């Protein structure tokens, strides 16, 4: 019998997220007081990476593959490149991202239970750089992470974490788009700029706006996919305008 706590998937209807199909997953690592930039960490043999059939077979044969077992796989295939990381037992944390009153990102970490099925982690978290490996229990590690909740989290916590992070990401990049539009308007109309200066600044602002709009579209798309793959999750119901960037997600922003 499956437990509602662990939300165990069945082999017959196994869904392997696309972000796992390469045999690796993008993760951050905190070791002592050092935070390593996120990178793709393999969980299958290097020679078998980028084979979606191998990955599918792994999870079909092991539908209840646990977080602990996946951590052992990550550790195994990183051993040769960075052996000092393997003295301690690894733990997996989820990073929930919220925004403060100034619109800046705030990180809150919580440990995922080793016994939880790895595929019960919402796809949004797997695909959005929200998972962090902690390689030891040192106080300096906790300091490097910042705010860390006590205890182990349930799957419902992970769903809620994905909800909050998805909304925060869209809100953050929506604000970036608005700021970029203002900068572009300023560059186009500020009277003290010479023609050459105006042309150069407008080009820079247009490039920044295009990049912010692209990211806003990306994170909006990921939020919508998360909404569609979870029961009883409603993040977005309509677009205020058909063009992302000038008017976004009326339900989230109240207009």
Characterize the structure shown.
- There is one protein chain.
- The protein is α/β, with parallel strands linked by helices and 255 residues long.
- The protein folds into 2 domains: 11-153, no CATH class; 164-253.
- 42% of the residues lie in helices and 18% in strands.
- It contains 7 helices and 6 strands; from the N terminus they run ββααββαβαβααα.
- It has helices at 52-61, 67-78, 123-126, 139-145, 155-189, 195-229, 250-253; strands at residues 24-31, 34-42, 91-99, 105-112, 131-134, 147-153.
- Strands 2-1-5-3-4-6 form a 6-stranded mixed sheet.
- β1 and β2 form a beta hairpin.
- The longest helix is centred in the C-terminal third of the chain and has 35 residues, at 155-189.
- It is elongated and about 65 Å long.
- The chain starts with 23 loop residues before the first strand and ends with a helix.
- Residues 1-9 and 237-255 have low confidence and may be disordered.
Helices and strands in order:
Elements: E1 24-31, E2 34-42, H1 52-61, H2 67-78, E3 91-99, E4 105-112, H3 123-126, E5 131-134, H4 139-145, E6 147-153, H5 155-189, H6 195-229, H7 250-253
Parallel strand pairs: 1-5, 4-6
Antiparallel strand pairs: 1-2, 3-4, 3-5
């Amino acid at each position: 019998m499956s437990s509602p706590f662990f939300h165990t998937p069945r082999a017959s209807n196994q869904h392997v997220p696309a972000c796992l199909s390469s045999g690796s997953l993008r993760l951050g690592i905190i070791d002592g007081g050092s935070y390593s930039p996120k990178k793709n960490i393999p969980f299958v043999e290097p020679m078998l990476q980028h084979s979606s059939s191998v990955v599918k077979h792994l999870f079909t044969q092991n539908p209840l593959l646990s977080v602990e077992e996946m951590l052992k796989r990550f550790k195994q295939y990183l051993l040769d490149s960075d052996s000092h990381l393997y003295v301690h037992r690894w733990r997996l944390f989820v990073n929930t991202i919220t925004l403060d009153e100034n619109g800046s990102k705030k990180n809150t970490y919580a440990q995922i239970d080793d016994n939880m099925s790895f595929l019960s982690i919402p796809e949004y978290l797997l695909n959005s750089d929200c998972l962090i490996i902690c390689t030891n229990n040192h106080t300096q590690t906790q300091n490097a992470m910042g705010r860390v909740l006590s205890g182990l989290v349930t799957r419902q916590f992970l769903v809620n974490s994905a909800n909050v992070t998805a909304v925060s990401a869209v809100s953050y990049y929506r604000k970036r788009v608005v700021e970029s539009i203002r900068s572009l308007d300023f560059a186009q109309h500020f009277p003290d700029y010479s023609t050459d200066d105006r042309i150069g600044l407008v080009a820079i602002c247009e490039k920044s706006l295009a990049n912010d709009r692209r990211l806003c579209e990306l994170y909006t798309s990921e939020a919508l996919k998360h909404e569609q793959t979870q029961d009883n999750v409603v993040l977005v119901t309509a677009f205020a305008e058909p063009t992302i960037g000038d008017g976004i997600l009326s339900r989230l922003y109240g207009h």
